[in-house]
Amino acid sequence: MDEAIHIDERYPAQYWHPLDDGRIQCDLCPRDCKLHEGQRGACFVRGMADGKMVLTTYGRSSGFCIDPVEKKPLNHFYPGSSVFSFGTAGCNLACKFCQNWDISKSRDMDRLMDQASPAAIAQAAKAHGSRSVAFTYNDPVIFYEYALDTADACHALGIQTVAVTAGYIHAAPGREFFAKMDAANIDLKGFTEDFYLKLTGAHLQPVLDTLAYVHHDTSCWLEITTLLIPGHNDSDAEIRNLSTWVAKELGPDVPLHFTAFHPDWKMQDVPPTPPATLTRARRIALDAGLHYVYTGNVHDPEGGTTYCPSCRHAVIVRDWYDIRHYDVTEHGACPQCGTSIAGSFGQYEKPFGPRRIPVTMMPATMG
């Protein structure tokens, strides 16, 4: 039985329509949840109250932290900068391998103790010197209205916005969503419909459609992450197919991150990803023609380094989230040969480094 939707949780939601039988249908993501009065969708945070769709987590967060932007991961979006990060609860996918399950699978709304208005979040990010705000930890698609209002507040103060998302969103809301994002890391969780259906409860094609749309039809900077799970999506064939699709449909300059799985949630019987698997995947993707391929969740300076695609000069050397050497011009070019490095760059300052700083939003900033 669904948890009751309290009166103070009923923020008006967008993208839904009434059905002839008295239910309503959510039109935000391809799940197309059809809901009775008082029922919540698969994401758990959107539901039907008084005959309308509402968002139950507006203004409420599972926590605020300042992270290095490389943790999102974004390696080509103002490297070394800090990003003010937050999420809520719930998710519109059902990944059995979820690495943030304590947040994304949460049904305990009491954990959303940190409260802040969109304006307060933007002001806090500015006060802490963060270049951007990230909607992360759980998927911002499901807290759509809160994310977009926060994006507007951030842009008003010159703060940029980052979405970390599975990209499982319908085309119409997706256009509005990504128009307000300056950068996005989209999870491409595998490259077969069977994988998506059995391990995420979703479908592959809508994610591919989102990736193509963001790259070709928006100004949002795009990077892609694939978590490699031993025995499930780490075969040479699947990695080659995925990499070839990215190269052909998106082009060689979209960064691709292969990250290591650790046993969690409902897949604790699967072993961690060996570092050799990440190295193999990176080589396959480079051979497919991609210019920027990275390994993640491991110490691997080779796999963390950005190389100039023309002269192979190491323009940014990283070990995990730690930038050890930076050699990109202010205009985003290789100083050795002048080739442009894809991404968003500016004047490089002292890097934020591999830190994580929790932030408490004081009551005075909640209004």
Automatic annotation (TrEMBL):
GO molecular function: 4 iron, 4 sulfur cluster binding; metal ion binding; oxidoreductase activity
Residue ranges of domain Radical SAM core in the record: 76-297
A Pfam family this chain is assigned to: Radical_SAM
Gene: hpdA_2
UniProt-listed InterPro entries: Aldolase_TIM, AmmeMemoSam_rS, Organic_radical-activating, Pyrv-formate_lyase-activ_prd, rSAM, rSAM_sf
PANTHER family membership: PYRUVATE FORMATE-LYASE 1-ACTIVATING ENZYME, PYRUVATE FORMATE-LYASE-ACTIVATING ENZYME
EC number of this enzyme: 1.97.1.-
Originating organism: mine drainage metagenome
Keywords annotated in UniProt: 4Fe-4S, Iron, Iron-sulfur, Metal-binding, Oxidoreductase, S-adenosyl-L-methionine
Cofactor(s), by name: [4Fe-4S] cluster
PROSITE patterns per the UniProt record, alphabetical: RADICAL_SAM
Record-given protein name: 4-hydroxyphenylacetate decarboxylase activating enzyme
